[in-house]
Design a protein that fits this description.
Blueprint: H1 3-12, H2 15-24, E1 27-30, H3 41-63, H4 80-90, E2 96-98, E3 103-104, E4 112-114, E5 117-120, H5 122-129, H6 137-143, E6 155-163, E7 192-196, E8 206-208, E9 227-228, E10 233-237, E11 242-244, H7 261-264, E12 267-274, H8 276-283, E13 303-304, E14 319-322, E15 342-346, E16 351-354, H9 355-362, H10 386-400, E17 407-409, H11 417-435, E18 440-442, E19 445-447, H12 454-471, H13 495-498, H14 501-506, H15 508-513, H16 523-536, H17 538-552, H18 563-572
Antiparallel strand pairs: 1-10, 2-5, 3-4, 5-6, 6-12, 6-13, 7-10, 7-12, 8-9, 8-11, 14-15, 15-16, 17-19, 18-19
Helix pairs in contact: 2-6, 11-12
Length: about 575
Amino acid sequence: MSMREHSAQQQDGYGSENANQLLSRGWVEFREGFPEAWNWAVFDFVESYHAVYNEPIIAALESLRVVWKPCECSKARFGAFAAEKLSRLLKQYGVAVFTPPPSVSSFPAYHETGPRFYVSITQAALKHFGTAPQPPLAISKVLLGHPEDQKGGLRIRGLGWALAPPGSDPQDLHSDIWGDRMHHRLDRVRYPHFLWKPDRNVKCTTQIVPGVFPEGNVRAFHYDKIQQVSATALLVDGEVLHRGGATSPTPHNTHNAPCSLANLWPSTLSVELCTPTGWKVWMAGVGGGAPKKVQHLPMWHMLRVHWEAQQCPAGHWLTRCLTQRRDCYCDKCAWTLAKRSTIFSCWRCNYTECRSCYSETQNTTMTDDLPLLLAPELPPFEWIAVPGLQALQKEQSQWEGPKKITELEIAVPIGSSTAWLHELKSEIWHFNSKFGSEIRLAGARLSGLSTLVPEARKELQCLVKWYESKAYPQREQKQPAGSDPPRHSRPSFSSSWHRSPLRSRSHRSLAILNDSSSRPGDEKRRIRQTQGLAEESKDTHIRSILFAEECIEGARGQIIFGADEQMSHLAAR
């Protein structure tokens, strides 16, 4: 290779070679750091925060070491409570601490042995940049080589650095994010991940399984194919299987400087990106990303990278027009557009931007300046003393909590369970429609209660108590003479259906059967009245139920039980 060709490759960061290696193997090594052509203000932003916040965060985590291990009844990760406790203190600075996959033993079974931490400064970057400046052209050539990725700009999924306590075992194998059977990884890299050491003389401890993109399915034989990288900077595909290596209990001090916590805790700086095609997979809520229900939360917001919107990626000017169909979507945000929506489109390239993306890009304010940072002012650690430590452990047990209640047994007598459970099934359907829950009724057991908010759980308990009280009228306490009988409040989720005369007519037999106000000696008379009513109005009863099924199905739910089931129930009584 001539000197001119070598100089050209250094200027563009070995674009085509790196792109091919990243796609096939899953990572690219840079033994002397990233090329100078890759200098980006986003990298400088991460390094500036790391220089100021790293040591105070490590000191706070060391003080919380006693609560790293989760409670016996908890399924939380190692260090989850300590990360949450510290995130509350750093929220005002736009900094948060999370717990990625933990450290595990080096032999099979791979039991969890300790925590790993990740310091996120994404919220601080969102506040500082608004829209991040464009990356250098050398980076774009490597990451946006596919034609579909040239129809929009990059997004930054996360900025920060990873922390590992000294003497930790290797991390559990994992992929940061992946697709599914509808969004396979084919001919492009969707989630590139930059990793580098703040000290150019220290190498990354990352370990990678080359060419393995398991879409979240980790197998035992993958541990036999692990390779150790040997470079100070890496470009990794977030979908490849990788992990952090074991850490030494002694500090990595290359300059004979005084030993500090920062030297004891190895850290790796990180910038995670999302390409335009990766954004479409993210919006589908698959893989290790955020489900659609929580994508609106601030912790899942991504930082947009500036992208010129007046022209398409090919340099053609965008023209304003209206959509003619309902299946059009924006190539920048992947949002499906309604018919007759305003768009800015290039018909030659089939490139489209919605009105929001076009306006937002034109009005963005960018900056390459770094913020003036001061060390965070954290309150004194009260848990160092014995009383504070006891209060901290109690707070941990309350935060992690016991195992959540996922099932509930309904106390209904066998003789009358069929009718009541059918009616309760209809009420549960309306309850799910009201609160967006997924409660299921199987026999006399309710399942799927772990996701209920307190308000919904309280209303469900009230509903179940109402049915239990009607099923056990003999359990009601005797009231003093002259006092009113007890009344049970019943929450109604389908009030118009319960008040309809059609439902009253179809349940006249049940009303007679369950009339607890009758005298004890009238039970035989009630049965004869019920049987006579059933024989006289059987045809009318069936027509009423069929009519109700046609009118109410799909809007209020199906009829809770048919005429045959009701007649068999009456005969049994």
